[in-house]
Amino acid sequence: MQILHPFSGSLQQYEEAMADPDRYRPDHCPQCDAQHPLSAHGFYRRTFVEVGFDGVIRVRRYLCRCRQRTVSLLPQFALPYLRFGVAVIARFLIARLLQGRTLVAAALAAAQPRMPYQRGQFWVRRFRRQAEALCAALVALAAPPPALHFVGRALLLLQSLDWIAAHRFLFSQLRMHLLGWPAFLAPHGLRATLSSTGPLKKSQTHNTCLVPPPRPT
Ligand SMILES: [Zn+2]
Description:
Elements: E1 2-5, H1 11-19, E2 39-50, E3 53-64, E4 69-75, H2 86-98, H3 103-109, H4 117-138, H5 150-161, H6 163-174, H7 190-195
Helix pairs in contact: 2-3, 2-4, 2-5, 4-5, 5-6
The chain binds zinc ion.
């Protein structure tokens, strides 16, 4: 299972902070609610692209001894199962969908000048599919701005709320992925819920344990 770590410093500060397993150790298991601290369980490495960074980061893992299941502490600037961070994708989508720039210009705005255009199209497709559900979920945090369509409304909401704060809320509270879960990962019970507009029921969140993380795409 992945949970988000509300880390907001630089990548270097993140690496330093992660070196100490006690610093951000969850005090209870989010999967079985066992009231004992989780055991440090090393790291997994994942590729990550951010504005000014293209490399590998370490993600701290913990183990629940009760059920022998791992909990990964994903930094909040990263998205589950995506190599590109929230800031890059946000810049691209704003430029492409809100400002109407070309795919090439949007990639430049996201500081990804050599990015293949298909990647941008992939983000746009996923965001379009997800926009209505995002609007429905984010009204819990802010009044929806006037916009002609769900895509514009979702983008304006994300801009006003701050993308990372919104991602943290969506993932931590609703187990929603900012761009929607890819079909191959949608856990039992989650896909149908995301296509509707209501938040997850408590009982449905138990089916969202996603281990182990595959390579981000
Ligand atoms: Zn547990």
